[in-house]
């Protein structure tokens, strides 16, 4: 039993009891007991110490030190000589000694034994009984980064991502699943587990064929919406250009911003088409014409946001456009209203245009009826300002 012999030697080297620099703690009578009445317990102790030694990382001083304490404590307890030990602790059982060893491997300094403390702090980690623990359980105690189902990488396997599938009493099994070919399985002994590093990277994944088919450009709703947007924008501009001559019948003004007639107009002689950025209305049930401008295309409503107007007349280099539709003023005075919104169909696109409902004199301002929602919002702003 080499582990037990090693433990006996540790006891002799570390005991406080000596005579003329010669240890006086282990005697021939103790060896006789180990071969006789204590033989079964000695064999059990040999197995526990051999298993525990397999979990020690020789590169960590605290691990070697913890094992040395385990060896001395177990022998001192078995021979009933704990009072001669270095730590002056009276242990109640083998289980308690092994639990403290497990704690020292995973958490550093050992906690006080149960006999020396009547209460346990709720913040202390749960201790494991290594006498009945399997090699896999001890490996997890030593390598806290090991979790079944988590992803790992290894320097010897390049950029491959492995999943820890199982822990046996002999080794860990890591599996890499490539997008083609057979899975790659790697079994690793517990002493080499520290070379496997946990990673947050994802494994290569193939898109499901049905999902891929639905997301191809020719089938994608995103592309369909974008194509509809292009068509709507084109038709809006085409509709505007068919009536572009009407722009010559108006003049643009600021302070206040508005539109005037350059000539006398007959009833319904002037039609002004809107221009702007188009976007699909996400919730078609929330369509409210009083709160915005909308066009209809293939049964769906699209909002129309007017382009930025050019109002810096003394700075021709400034951006913006002069769209007659946008410059028409709104008013609450029904007597001034001479323009109205009228929906018209242009090649399948329903467009709200402005048309003069009555004859208009030259140099007259063009007005449209103010929307109720806009009027209420304007009044609210005035009250709060």
Task: Throw out a few tags for this protein.
Beta-clip-like, 10 helices, 19% strand, alpha+beta, rod-shaped, 6-stranded antiparallel beta sheet, 385 residues, 32% helix, single chain
Distance between the termini: 94 Å
What is the architecture of the largest domain at the second tier of CATH? Beta Complex
CATH class of the largest domain equals Mainly Beta
Q: Write the element-wise H/E pattern from the N-terminal end onward.
A: HEEHHHHHEEEEEHHEEEEEEHEEEEH
Beta content? 15-25%
Could you describe the 3D structure shown?
With 385 residues, the protein is α+β, with helices and mostly antiparallel strands. It folds into 3 domains: 2-114 and 126-140, no CATH class; 145-198; 221-378, Beta-clip-like (Beta Complex). The chain is built from 10 helices and 17 strands. The protein has helices spanning 2-14, 28-35, 39-53, 61-78, 94-107, 135-142, 209-215, 221-242, 324-327, 372-384; strands at residues 18-19, 22-23, 151-153, 162-167, 171-176, 184-189, 197-198, 250-253, 258-261, 271-272, 276-280, 294-297, 300-306, 329-331, 339-346, 349-356, 367-369. Strands 10, 11, 12, 13, 15 and 16 form a 6-stranded antiparallel sheet that branches. A hairpin with a 3-residue loop joins strand 4 (162-167) and strand 5. Helix 1 packs across helix 4, helix 3 packs antiparallel against helix 4 and helix 4 packs antiparallel against helix 5. The chain is rod-shaped. Mean pLDDT is 81; it is low at 110-127 and 372-382.
């Amino acid at each position: 039993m080499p582990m037990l012999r090693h433990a006996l030697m540790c006891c002799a080297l570390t005991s406080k009891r000596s005579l003329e620099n010669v240890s006086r703690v282990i005697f021939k009578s103790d060896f006789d007991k180990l071969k006789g009445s204590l033989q079964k317990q000695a064999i059990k102790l040999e197995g526990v110490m051999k298993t525990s030694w397999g979990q020690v990382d020789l590169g960590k001083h605290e691990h070697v030190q913890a094992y040395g304490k385990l060896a001395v404590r177990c022998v001192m307890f078995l021979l009933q000589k704990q009072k001669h030990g270095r730590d002056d602790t009276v242990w109640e059982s083998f289980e308690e000694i092994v639990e403290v060893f497990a704690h020292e491997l995973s958490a550093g300094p050992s906690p006080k034994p149960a006999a020396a403390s009547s209460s346990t702090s709720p913040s202390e980690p749960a201790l494991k009984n290594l006498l009945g623990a399997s090699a896999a359980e001890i490996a997890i105690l030593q390598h806290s980064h090991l979790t079944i189902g988590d992803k790992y990488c290894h320097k010897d396997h390049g950029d491959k991502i492995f999943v820890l599938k199982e822990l046996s009493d002999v080794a860990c099994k890591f599996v890499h699943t490539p997008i083609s070919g057979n899975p790659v399985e790697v079994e690793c002994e517990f002493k080499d587990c520290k070379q496997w590093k946990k990673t947050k990277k994802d494994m290569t994944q193939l898109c499901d064929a049905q999902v891929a088919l639905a997301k191809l450009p020719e089938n994608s709703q995103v592309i369909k919406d974008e194509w509809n947007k292009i068509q709507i924008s084109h038709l809006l501009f085409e509709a505007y250009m068919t009536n572009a001559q009407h722009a010559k019948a108006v003049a643009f003004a600021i302070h206040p911003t508005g539109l005037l007639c350059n000539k006398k107009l007959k009833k319904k002689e002037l039609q002004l088409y809107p221009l702007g950025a188009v976007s699909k209305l996400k919730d078609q049930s929330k369509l409210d014409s009083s709160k915005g401008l909308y066009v209809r295309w293939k049964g769906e409503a699209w909002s129309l946001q007017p382009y930025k107007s050019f109002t810096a007349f003394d700075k021709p280099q400034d951006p913006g456009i002069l769209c007659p539709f946008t410059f028409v003023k709104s008013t609450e005075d029904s007597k001034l209203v001479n323009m109205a919104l009228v929906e018209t169909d242009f090649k399948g696109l329903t467009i709200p245009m402005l048309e003069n409902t009555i004859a208009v004199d030259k140099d007259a301002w063009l007005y449209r009826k103010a929307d109720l929602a806009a009027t209420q919002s304007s009044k609210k702003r005035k009250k709060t300002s």
